[in-house]
Amino acid sequence: LLRRVLQARLDGGLTGHRRAAVLGELAELLGGPLQDPAAAFDARLAAVEADPSDPEHHDAALAAAADGDNAARYQATISRLLDASRRDGDLASRVELQLRLARINEQRGDLAAASQMLMEAEATGARQVDVWRARARVAGAMGDTAAQVELLERLTSLGEDQSETRTDALYRVAEVRLGN
After folding, report:
1. How confident is the model over 134-164, as pLDDT tens digits?
2. End-to-end Cα, the chain, rounded Å
3. Count of CB atoms situated within 10 Å of the CB of 60
4. How far is CA 120 from CA 50, 85, 98, 99, in A?
């Protein structure tokens, strides 16, 4: 019954974040009580497509992409959405997608591609703190301690409202300098 209700809501013409929220509920139902992980993953991907700027939908889709085929489908979806966001000027979606694609590249060991994607994200001027954190992590993985320290020092100079980020960055700077 709940599945039919959710499907009726989707058929009612919902768009954007509302459609993504209903798709997320449908995915929970499909992956849980209805025990249909393939359909649940499809709903997760559809939620990402409906609202590509929402990290929660990305996290859920990535968690559901347990096997190689689904992980590849997730990456292909992200790449396609990123191309579309470049054309339509949706900056919030573009940066979220760039961060996600960079993370995928990083996890696959393609640090150069991850670094390039993060530099493109930084050039947008959006979500700088998230981009600097990711760039520092990738620079560290690449062994580029100078770039890593420079990015961490940017994070240490953030305002009082970012005290947790500043503190973490200070500790990481100390770790890098002590490690060298």
Report:
1. 999 999 999 999 999 999 999 999 888 888 8
2. 61
3. 22
4. 23, 13, 8, 10
Cβ atoms within 10 Å, residue 70: 19
Give me the DSSP letters along 3-35. HHHHHHHHHTT--HHHHHHHHHHHHHHHHTTT-
* Helices marked H in 51-124: 55-64, 68-88, 91-107, 111-124
The residue type found at 142 is: M
Residue 53 carries which DSSP code?
T
Length of the chain: 180
- The 10 Å CB-count burial string (b at 16+, else e) for 108-142 is eeebebbbebbebbbeeeebbebbbbbbbbbbbee
pLDDT tens-digit map of 101-128: 999 999 999 999 999 999 999 999 999 9
> Highest-confidence range of 4-13, 38-47, 156-165, by mean pLDDT?
38-47
